[in-house]
Amino acid sequence: MRQSQASVLLGIMSWHGISAAGSLPRGVGPEFVKFYEIKDTFTCIGHPSITIPASRVNDNSCDCPDGTDEPGTAACALLDHLSPEQPLPGSLSGTTNTTNALPGFWCANNGHVGAYVPFMYVNDGVCDYDLCCDGTEEYGNVGGVKCENRCAEIGKEWRRVEKERKDNLERANKRRRTMVKESKELRRRAEAKITTLAEEIKELEVKRDELKGKLDEVERQERFKVVKNEGPGKLGVLAGLAKTRVNELRDALSKVMGERNQLRTKVEELEGILAAFKEEYNPNFNDEGVKKAVRGWEDYAAKKAGEAQEQLNEMDILEVMKEDSEESGINWGEFDEDEATDTDILYSFEAYLPGPLRDFLHTEINLLRIWLIENGILADGGSEKSESRLVKTAREAHDSVANDVNSKTRTLEEQQRDLEKDYGNDDIFRYLKGKCVTTEAGEYEYELCWLDKTSQKSKKGGGKTNMGNFDRFDFDEADEEERHDGKGLGRGRRMVLRYENGQGCWNGPNRKTDVWLACAETEELWRISELEKCVYKMEVGTPAVCEELVEPGHVKDEL
């Protein structure tokens, strides 16, 4: 309708369009004023070699190839460099295959914000108040339409909304500054922890090396002893081995019980999912894979119902898993009574020697035995199964420090890798890492965990479905209309978090999610959509992507 009305206007030749407020032709924007100063001739802006009389400006006839001689009419509205070449009688270019150099018809919109209106909207009989609130684009009163000036009320409402938008943006930026401060503190703590761990590891390595030397020396001294004042006999050794074996079996039973409980929970969850799937699927949907899955579940359920399940007595198992003591299990204390070892019986004659002489002989015999074994004269009859308490104590001390070194080294490496990760500008996503936001849409609840994963869960029950694991930061161009509530992506370059390699779809690829971010006062998951099979788009607001307040331009897009 707009184009047909605009075509009717080509017959109107009486409007030469000098604006009443000044000496400029109608529809000229402020940035083009210098080209339309009052004089006898007009030079085409894009084609300086073409000059026409000033009387032919806004005469509803396209004389300049770039349309600059008609800033206030729709005569050049159909100029398009992408259109097929068509003859244009009376035009110096001879064709419509060109581009209009002007962005549109300028509406001053006093009391509001000036804007350009597409030329095809000029005198089309429709009041375009969203672009031209002063109604000046309908100066021809085509069809009796007269557009009143509504800039006062529209401008007032716009200023209110704009103030609210700026206030929201300022609050969002304030929170972002707080988040940046927290992120820097988290990074400082990580750096401090790395420094502390490095120092602790250095000290522990020295201590570990010292204890290793002591352990080697104690082993050297103890392993060659002929007479040992401590240690159990054969019955004590057997009791010790039995106790160790019983404890190992008890630990294994505890682990098996834990794994059984986990598997039982998973089986129950999967059975619930399949049972719900059987009840909810559409039997008229001709998918052999789905029907096969349903038949398989029915066979499984029938087989399970016919099985006689033998229930384990949980109390008996728990009783077996209790620690041994005097009240339950085996009382190992009965086997810890002192008894004479084989070596003690063999060398009990030392007890009849004076103390100083006994110690002297004991030391000399040990030194002689060490020398004989180290020089290959005497075989080493020592055994690790009968190492002394002194060796055990030295070994435990060394192993404890060595394990501490290994644990702190792993923690240090993890902290260093984390410090090298990309957490965005100002390290701001370090503050958000691990936090989650959720929303409900349709039959599902969706969750976004920052730099971790995205998931969905049915409101009817069942487990979560992984929709993707965080992979990388990215940027893309958004092209959406601004929303009145501010909860939208708008237009421009936006940060996108790519979540890849989620749970596989039925007969489809692995799920993945693109998380588009826009500035907002709080973290909020606005919308989620499935762009194609198993490919999701989340629109999320967060202060993390806000920028300092900058007054934007208000150039309207020409349709």
The gist of it:
With 559 residues, this protein is α+β, with helices and mostly antiparallel strands. Helices cover 39% and strands 14% of the residues.
The value of Rg in angstroms is 43 Å
| Mean model confidence by pLDDT | 79
Helix content: 25-40%
Strand order of the largest sheet: 5-6-7-8-9-10-12-11
Coarse structural class: alpha+beta
* Strand runs, count: 12
Number of helices: 9
H and E string: HEEEEHHHHHHHHEEEEEEEE
Query: β content, as a range?
Result: 5-15%
Give the termini separation: 15 Å
- Outline type: elongated
Largest sheet: 8 strands, mixed
Spans of 5+ residues with little confidence (pLDDT < 50)? 1-22, 226-231, 549-559
Structure description:
By secondary structure, the protein is of the alpha+beta class. 39% of the residues lie in helices and 14% in strands. The strands form three sheets. The protein has an eight-stranded mixed β-sheet with strand order 5-6-7-8-9-10-12-11, with no helix packed on it. Strand 6 (444-449) and strand 7 (453-458) form a beta hairpin. Helix 2 (151-223) packs antiparallel against helix 8 (389-420). Residues 1-22, 226-231 and 549-559 have low confidence and may be disordered.
